[in-house]
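Aggregate trends can hide what the representation actually does to any particular protein. This step matters because it turns folding into a mapping between discrete strings. For completeness, the protein is quoted in full, as a sequence line and a line of structure tokens:
=====
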Amino acid sequence: MFKSYKEWVKDGSPKIFCDCPCHQEIIIKLRNCYRGMPRFIRGHNSRGINHPMYGKHHTDTMKNKSSISHKNQISPMKDKRHTEESKQKNRDKHLGKNIAEKHWNWCGGITEINHAIRSSNKYNNWRTQIFDRDNFTCQECRKRGYLLEAHHIKQFSYIINDNNIKTLKDALNCDELWNLNNGVTLCESCHNKTNNYGRPKIEH
């Protein structure tokens, strides 16, 4: 089993199958891999169909026993507060983790330029033109006027990287970035299901 999404992509994105008896193919999406590559289809691990209580319910007697066993249990932190020393130790422990290149979704430091582009009038006009062209209708489920988003067919971060966009001026002069054929109207739910939702990491 691959340890990371990056390893899986480098090996040619082979098929991966569920470790439970169903042995069905797992559909890999980056947003599901931030803690490592999945071994099970969602719901097929020990908390799903393989769990001994799956499809069963506790009896009222069992519920009462459980309720009684947890009564009067008091948290060790009740009415207490962490000391400033404890807080500082916790800060120091996490300092420097998951920042810049260490973060799983690092894309080369493009957040600032991303924000500038998406806040520009030209970007708002691009979105509006996409919605107008598609009659404010999701092109997948055909819902109209419901939590609509303009989806980039070629990923937004890839366009920035491929065209070496460093400034807002570079972005405004990039024809590919404003190509209406690269946009499609989707509702929030359908947008979340697209393969490039969640900004996969760019190799530099």
About this structure: Residues 107 and 129 are 28 Å apart (CA to CA). The chain has eight helices and four strands. Residues 121-133 form the longest helix (13 residues). Residues 200-204 have pLDDT under 50 and may be disordered.
